[in-house]
Design goal:
By secondary structure, this protein is an alpha/beta fold. The protein has helices at residues 13-22, 28-44, 60-64, 141-149, 381-389, 394-410, 416-430; strands spanning 7-8, 46-47, 68-69, 89-94, 97-98, 111-115, 154-158, 168-174, 179-181, 184-189, 194-203, 210-211, 214-219, 224-231, 238-247, 252-259, 264-273, 279-288, 293-302, 308-317, 322-331, 339-348, 354-363, 369-377.
């Protein structure tokens, strides 16, 4: 009987050589972190579909490429870089490296923004005590590789009790062709701090590149953080991300994952509720067209009692695109009085569109309210008929119904400018007539 192939043999000598070279650079904490990342990647390898967690994410093409590390370089379309709100705090990374020329962050009381590379030569920098402690790279080979490869990123720190009125925009630009970049983001919201962050991934014409972002978020006691992540890279690129959050007692974390880009795009998002009375949102809007494959794996880990979590994922799938959703809610034995709700809905716009949905509830407490639901369907004929009867053209009627479907998530975003931008992106993505 032949062995089950669970990992691909890669031809990545240049990428691994760079990772190996990085291990000997910087202070001890950094060398240990990178060494851990490379060791985990070499142990796990690039998984085949025989690995359950990667069953619907075909990685053979990525495994067989001879990748190079993306070079540092300017973004050539600087005037067109997205900006949601005039006067926002704006942080730009090009190929994972902080770009001071494109960034603009005025000094605000309670807010610290700095390139991660400033911490890479210092044992005493606050980044050294936190970076790598949230991301679960032992379960994510690409997060592990990114940990071995990263050279820079951005550190956002919210001081205790600070209220940041300005929107914080983190713009990731992939530039060039055929390169691997590993952007790193570390966000620390201290006790009772309040802020709103938008993290967006775009390209400047780059083709056939591989983006491996790792975002770590710490939400301390009583902090309130809204975090919108927009993945709108070119549909020739691959994007495999790890996004991990840890919440403390009485905190509120509202996250919105908007995924429109990438020929193959996957985001693994996990939130650990490690204090009582946490409130958590883990929502998403996905639009896939052409031959795209967009995969989202989510995990909500309820460790302590009296926490509420809400998850709504809406997916619009057209042409021959494929979308994957795997949503896990884990309730530990001590997490009594947990209230967790998960909803996953897919709208198929084409007979060749595909959705693979797998909701998972693992409950070890007996005094909880936990529900989940998954539905798949097409635009209903009756609403379309009534709208056409009232003189609304077919394309506009379909656009209205698609917007109504996605609006349940988009309307939850509190910054109006961000909401309108995402509505326009959805219109452009689906080729529907703008309604707003």
């Amino acid at each position: 009987m032949s062995a089950v192939l669970t990992r691909y043999e890669t031809t990545w000598p240049n990428v691994e050589a760079v990772a190996q070279a990085h291990i000997g650079e910087g202070p001890l904490w950094l060398r240990n972190l990178r060494s851990r990342g490379l060791r985990v990647f070499q142990e796990l390898g690039i998984p085949t579909p025989k690995v359950e967690e990667w069953k619907y994410t075909p990685l053979r093409d990525i495994a067989e490429r001879k990748w190079e590390l993306a070079e540092p370089g300017p973004a050539w379309f600087e005037p067109a870089l997205p900006s949601f709100v005039e006067g926002a705090v704006r942080i730009v990374l090009v190929n994972g490296r902080f770009d001071a020329n494109l960034s603009d962050f005025p000094r605000l009381p309670g807010l610290t923004v700095s390139p991660i590379r400033e911490a890479l030569t210092d044992d005493a920098n606050p980044v050294s005590a936190v970076l790598g402690t949230i991301a679960r790279i032992e379960k994510h080979p690409f997060g592990a590789l990114a940990t071995a490869l990263f050279e820079d990123g951005v550190y956002v720190h919210l001081a205790t009790g600070s209220v940041i009125e300005s929107l914080i925009e983190i713009v990731h630009v992939t530039s060039g062709e055929g390169g691997v970049c590993a952007p790193r983001v570390l966000i620390v919201a201290e006790k009772d701090s309040v802020a709103k962050i938008v993290e967006v991934y775009v390209t400047d014409g780059a083709a056939d590149s591989l983006t491996l972002p790792v975002t770590e978020v710490i939400v301390e006691r009583g902090a309130n953080l809204e975090h919108v992540r927009v993945q709108d890279e070119a549909t020739t690129n691959a994007h495999i991300a790890l996004w991990e959050t840890r919440q403390a007692e009485g905190s509120e974390y509202r996250s919105y994952n908007v995924a429109f880009g990438g020929r193959l795009a996957r985001t693994d998002q996990g939130i650990d509720l490690q204090g009582e009375h946490c409130i958590t949102r883990l929502d998403g809007v996905v639009a896939a067209t052409g031959n795209q494959l967009i995969d989202n794996h989510t995990r909500l880990d309820h460790a302590l009692p009296n926490c509420n979590s809400f998850e709504i994922y809406k997916q619009v799938i057209d042409d021959e695109a494929t979308v994957v959703f795997n949503g896990q809610i884990f309730v530990h034995a001590h997490a009594q009085k947990t209230d967790a709700k998960q909803t996953n809905q897919a709208l198929l716009m084409s007979p060749k569109a595909t959705i693979n949905s797998k909701p998972q509830l693992e409950i070890f407490a007996d005094d909880v309210k936990c529900t989940h639901g998954a539905t798949v369907g097409q635009l209903e004929d009756l609403p379309l008929f009534y709208m056409r009867q009232r003189g609304i053209p077919q394309e506009m009627a379909e656009s209205l119904l698609v917007y109504a479907f996605a609006a349940e998530v988009l309307e939850l975003i509190s910054v109006d400018e961000v909401k309108r931008d995402l509505e326009a992106r959805l219109d452009r993505k689906l080729g529907t007539e703008p309604l707003r």
